[in-house]
Design brief:
Length: about 140
């Protein structure tokens, strides 16, 4: 799937240029910001001008692209473990420091917590299905 470069104003501080670059390359946002700030301090106006040009040239990431990128992450199993519990249930594991995602230990804890919640829901479901209330409701519905 071809990625496109957009400004991500939801994650961005000023105009979302660094957030868009981080999303495009799959890097951590803080790393891209440090590169831009360091480049600005070391070279002066070049990185500042590049940021301003990116601000004017790049389109904002619309809701359509946000939903599309969320679906692409869910479809791409190599990026991480994805469940159907909702958007907060997505866990992306990073293999290198500059990549976006979570360290493996934190990802394992998140996945463990998610499976714990699923197990509790399954236990409640099993209790209901094996209860006499369920049998009574089933008999009433047959009438």
């Amino acid at each position: 799937m071809k990625k496109e470069l957009y400004r991500d104003t939801e994650k961005g501080k000023v105009a979302g240029v660094c957030a868009g670059l981080a999303d495009y390359f799959g890097w951590e946002l803080w790393l891209v910001r440090i590169i831009f700030i360091s480049g600005f301090l070391l070279t002066g106006s070049f990185f500042f001008m590049a940021y301003v040009i990116g601000w004017f040239i790049l389109d904002k990431k619309s809701d359509k692209e946000i939903k599309k990128s969320a679906f692409a992450v869910a479809a791409d199993k190599s990026k991480g473990w994805v469940s159907n519990l909702g958007e907060d249930a997505k866990v992306e594991v990073k293999s290198k420091v500059w990549q976006a995602g979570e360290p493996p230990k934190q990802a394992f804890k998140d996945i463990h917590n998610q499976f714990g919640k699923l197990e509790l829901r399954l236990r409640k479901l099993e209790c209901y299905v094996t209860s006499s209330e369920y049998q009574l409701n089933r008999e009433i519905n047959k009438l």
